[in-house]
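Why predict the complex rather than its parts? Because the way molecules touch one another can change local conformation, and only a joint prediction can capture that. The input here totals 472 residues.
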Amino acid sequence: MPYELYYWPTIQGRGEFARLALEEAGADYIDVARESEGLAVMMRMMDHAERPPFAPPFLKDGETIIAQTAAILLYLGARHDLAPKDPAGGLWTHQIQLTIGDLVAEAHDTHHPLGIGLYYEEQKPEALRRADDFRDNRIPKFLAWFETILARNPGGSSHLVGRRLTYADLSLFQLVEGLTYAFPKAMSRALKKAPRVASLHDAVMNRPRIKAYCESPRRIPFNEEGIFRRYPELDA
Amino acid sequence: MPYELYYWPTIQGRGEFARLALEEAGADYIDVARESEGLAVMMRMMDHAERPPFAPPFLKDGETIIAQTAAILLYLGARHDLAPKDPAGGLWTHQIQLTIGDLVAEAHDTHHPLGIGLYYEEQKPEALRRADDFRDNRIPKFLAWFETILARNPGGSSHLVGRRLTYADLSLFQLVEGLTYAFPKAMSRALKKAPRVASLHDAVMNRPRIKAYCESPRRIPFNEEGIFRRYPELDA
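Output of the joint prediction:
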């Protein structure tokens, strides 16, 4: 039985982290909300499931429904050899994912600092100020942390954890993709100071399954409805 | 060997979720940064560990260091019977915790909508607008979700998951505590529409170990350095 992934059908968003893991694993999955009537099915499940997801993305595997991006990856990582088997290594991979998730949330807040109840156009002056701090302080701080992890990994700096690919590597690739789309100037500067992060991004991009996926129509282009948005006024 | 918990010594903050689990479990732990020289030890570990925490809180158990609040609770929950043993139940508990963490982050952003690079006083007009949305839309939406989960739990509405206490119950207690401190008026209204959440909060508060902890000097009072801050102008 294929996995069923539920996420907004027109954006990469948080669902993309799950899609990348499923693609790299070569897993059989249906991106349900992109099928006919699928969005209505997704909304019904959020309303009526015994264990209702608070928000997409969520994954259905048989009778089990798992929401929250990091929890989905914890689940998929163990099943598809995208995380170390040892408990400490598994937790470390999860911890990196949670930290990536924190930066994703902050990236979203650059265009919605006053909350999602208002359009970007209604909070543009505030977005300009928040984006300043994000570009000048937050991106460099997080990238320095990833760079340090790669430098200290006893398994080598080709991966965040151990000697093999984990879902944390896939997610760091996606984080760099998204930030580079939204803040091309700031990221160009930041990646010069984080060469191991840049190399990891490129290596993941060239993995056969990831490359095939990114070149396929399954990969939704970035756009200004998602988490990572290119508003040139927010970059510098 | 006692656990070592590392967190900022003068606030409840995210560390409090770990403290509550350790207290309920009756676990032997040292709140390291509250000991003499402990803060310096914490900063050194963040700088020099092979697997450096991005930020506190983090837990040290022997040689294993675990950061990220939700990952700490995943670890403690399995070891101290504060989560179901079945994998689906464990993931569900974790998913609830991650969603609580999302609301905690949003609570923080009510007083720092433009980021942590500026003081509250420098972003007060923006904080007023963000807090409006948080009180009117976000608190009710999240509380309705917790209320639904409690109502649908086949094990009864005394717990979020199954028939017994989990760390998710402890964390929901702390979330209600914090929000009630920061937004007493808004929470008084919101809890009237979420009676099961209010009951769960009260039941956890009266558990012997939690009660003893909250009455002890180990419980740091809420204050305006933490995540949940009482700025009366942000409540209504």
